[in-house]
Amino acid sequence: MTYLILGLILLTVTLSACAQLALKLGVMRSHVQSALEGGLMDALVAVALSPLIWLGLLIYGLSVGMWLWVLSKVDLSIAYPFVGISFLVTMAFGAFLLNETITPARIAGTILIAIGCVLVGRSA
């Protein structure tokens, strides 16, 4: 696997985590929370009008486009385990940007996922 491919895999995974962050921030907005409690139509309108949710979807779209290119160059069995790295990035976003509590069990599980990604990457 070339450094270019590895870099694009890591960028794609990071973009996916960024999309998750934008979506989370979008649904955390008070007007979206109120709409989600108000019923299906209110929720759909609030979500459809949320810039952060649209940003998250846009980032996902970019990530998917890049992922398709990566899959055209690398075996799926090599590329897909790197998706596990998104657990690391997403957990870091949750802890540092959203002040979420991270338990030792969650840290241990995430480290195991990362170790698996490294082992798969080294086999390429």
TrEMBL record:
Localization per Swiss-Prot or TrEMBL: Cell membrane
GO cellular component: plasma membrane
Chain ranges passing through the membrane: 43-71, 78-98, 104-121
Keywords: Cell inner membrane, Cell membrane, Lipid A biosynthesis, Lipid biosynthesis, Lipid metabolism, Lipopolysaccharide biosynthesis, Membrane, Transmembrane, Transmembrane helix
Any Pfam family the entry gives: EamA
Domain of life of the native organism: Bacteria
The keyword Hydrolase belongs to this UniProt entry's keyword annotation: no
A GO BP entry: lipid A biosynthetic process
Membrane protein topology class: Multi-pass membrane protein
Residue intervals of the EamA domain: 50-120
Keyword Cytoplasm attached: no
GO molecular-function terms, A-Z: transmembrane transporter activity
PANTHER family associated with the record: 4-AMINO-4-DEOXY-L-ARABINOSE-PHOSPHOUNDECAPRENOL FLIPPASE SUBUNIT ARNF-RELATED (PTHR30561:SF9), SMR FAMILY PROTON-DEPENDENT DRUG EFFLUX TRANSPORTER SUGE (PTHR30561)
Name this protein carries in UniProt: EamA domain-containing protein
